[in-house]
C-alpha cells in the first residue's frame, strides 16, 4: 500500500503544537484475499484502508544537533503525537440469493471508523524554513465486519466449494502501521519566529 498526504500544523510554543493530517491510500483488494474467498475461506474481516483524516497533539521533547560528514551541523527534533480522526476502509458487501438460499459477495463499500492515532518521528532541518521528516504512525480503530458461515452445497462431495449460508456480524479491532516520509515548510522561517 502506498499513498500521499498533507499536514498542516501550528505550534503554540517551540515544543507543543497541533497538526491536521489528511492521508489518501492507494490500496486495493489483494489477489490472495480473492483466492482465499474463492477457496471457501471467510474474508469478511480483511479490510482495505483508503484514507485517514485526523488531528493530533504534537509534543517535541528532544532537540539536538548532529554533524553531517564533518561538513555541516544539522539541527533535529524528535516528536510524539496522539490524536483522533476517521479512517475510511473498503469492506465486502453481500446480496442474498433467495432461490439458492445463499449470500453472494457483491461489491466493496466504503465505511468510516473513529480512529485513535499514535505517532513518533524526527525532523531534520535542511534550511531555516525547510526540513525533511519521517515518522511511524499507528492508527487503531474498531469496525463491525461480517464473518461468513459456509455449508457444503453437496453432501456427497465435501471438497466442493461451500456456499455462504449466514453472515455473523462482529466488532473487530484493526491496526494500521504507516512509515511516512516528507518535507516540511515553515511560515515564517526560523529567523522570523
Protein model, in words:
This protein is mainly beta and 193 residues long. Helix content is 4%, strand content 73%. The protein has one helix and seven strands, in the order E-E-H-E-E-E-E-E. The protein has a seven-stranded antiparallel sheet with strand order 1-2-3-4-5-6-7, with no helix packed on it. A hairpin with a 4-residue loop joins strand 4 (72-97) and strand 5. The protein is elongated, with a radius of gyration of 23 Å. 16% of the residues are buried.
* CA radius of gyration: 23 Å
Q: How much beta, percentage-wise? A: over 45%
Count all strands and give the number: 7
The low-pLDDT segments are none
Query: How many helical elements?
Result: 1
Helix content: under 10%
Amino acid at each position: 500500500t502506498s499513498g500521499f498526504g498533507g499536514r498542516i500544523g501550528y505550534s503554540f510554543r517551540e515544543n507543543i503544537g497541533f497538526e491536521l493530517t489528511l492521508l489518501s491510500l492507494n490500496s486495493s483488494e489483494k489477489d490472495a484475499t480473492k483466492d482465499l474467498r474463492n477457496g471457501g475461506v471467510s474474508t469478511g474481516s480483511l479490510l482495505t484502508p483508503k484514507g485517514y483524516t485526523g488531528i493530533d497533539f504534537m509534543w517535541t521533547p528532544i532537540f539536538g544537533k548532529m554533524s553531517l560528514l564533518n561538513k555541516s551541523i544539522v539541527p533535529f527534533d524528535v516528536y510524539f503525537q496522539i490524536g483522533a480522526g476517521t479512517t475510511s476502509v473498503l469492506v465486502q458487501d453481500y446480496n442474498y440469493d433467495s432461490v439458492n438460499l445463499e449470500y453472494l459477495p457483491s461489491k466493496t463499500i466504503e465505511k468510516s471508523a473513529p480512529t485513535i492515532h499514535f505517532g513518533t518521528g524526527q525532523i531534520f532541518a535542511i534550511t531555516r524554513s525547510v526540513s525533511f521528516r519521517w515518522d511511524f504512525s499507528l492508527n487503531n480503530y474498531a469496525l463491525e465486519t461480517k464473518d461468513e458461515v459456509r455449508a457444503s452445497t453437496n453432501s456427497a462431495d465435501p471438497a466442493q466449494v461451500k456456499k455462504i449460508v449466514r453472515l455473523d456480524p462482529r466488532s473487530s479491532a484493526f491496526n494500521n502501521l504507516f512509515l511516512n516520509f516528507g518535507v516540511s515548510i515553515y511560515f515564517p522561517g526560523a529567523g522570523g519566529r
